[in-house]
């Protein structure tokens, strides 16, 4: 991901977070400032308009996210594949040279750490959006929807349903960019390297 795409990711996460905070403090602001100046119907109209504005902003943010995901999907897949290959190849060299050259093995280990950090950085960018989406869903649910009229309750329900499935960046059509994918890649790499290490041990024992 280039700088612009990272900026867009942060912007999207910030928009989701802002919407969540707006939903959370909506009632407190209205009750503190408007209760004595307006009747209940007027307050409901303001809440209705505010919720509709939030739904519109949420839709625009989702459209921006979809555009970002379409642009970055193939690139992220290529990057993930390259990082996995780099991690495996560096790990193989680490296993091979560690009995003979500790310094070179340390360099290989450092390279593996760098690759893992790059992978974690990519995953964290996506997790930032996932966290903001989940927070928005929680804040919509925590809104005092039970005090609203039926029309506003339906709008809140619509907002909750829209935020049930968090927005997630993807690498290719099937790989979700989340911490589960990160841990799966690490498990696969370690399993591969342990298998290679045991093969090396057995071959050296036979020789």
Automatic annotation (TrEMBL):
Compartment annotation: Cell membrane
Any one GO BP annotation for this protein: sensory perception of smell
Transmembrane helix recorded as keyword: yes
Entry keyword Ribonucleoprotein: no
Pfam families, sorted: 7tm_6
Protein name from the UniProt record: Odorant receptor
Membrane topology: Multi-pass membrane protein
Keywords carried by this UniProt record: Cell membrane, Membrane, Olfaction, Receptor, Sensory transduction, Signal, Transducer, Transmembrane, Transmembrane helix
Membrane spanning stretches: 76-98, 104-124
Main location: membrane
Region forming the signal peptide: 1-17
Source taxonomy: Eukaryota, Metazoa, Ecdysozoa, Arthropoda, Hexapoda
């Amino acid at each position: 991901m280039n700088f612009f795409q990272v900026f867009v990711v942060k912007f999207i996460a910030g928009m989701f977070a802002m919407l969540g905070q707006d939903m959370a403090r909506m009632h407190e602001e209205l009750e503190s400032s408007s209760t004595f100046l307006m009747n209940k119907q007027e307050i409901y109209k303001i809440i209705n308009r505010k919720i509709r504005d939030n739904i519109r902003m949420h839709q625009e943010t989702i459209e921006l996210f979809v555009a970002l995901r379409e642009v970055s999907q193939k690139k992220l897949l290529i990057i993930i594949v390259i990082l996995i290959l780099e991690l495996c190849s560096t790990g193989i060299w680490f296993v091979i040279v560690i009995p003979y050259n500790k310094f070179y093995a340390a360099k290989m280990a450092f390279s593996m750490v760098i690759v893992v950090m790059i992978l974690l950085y990519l995953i964290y960018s996506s997790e930032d959006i996932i966290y903001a989406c989940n927070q928005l869903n929680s804040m919509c649910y925590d809104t005092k929807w039970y005090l609203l009229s039926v029309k506003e309750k339906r709008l809140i329900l619509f907002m909750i349903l829209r935020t049930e499935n968090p927005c997630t960046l993807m690498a290719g059509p099937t790989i979700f960019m989340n911490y589960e994918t990160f841990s799966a890649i690490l498990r696969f790499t370690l399993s591969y390297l342990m298998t290679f290490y045991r093969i090396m041990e057995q071959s050296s024992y036979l020789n």
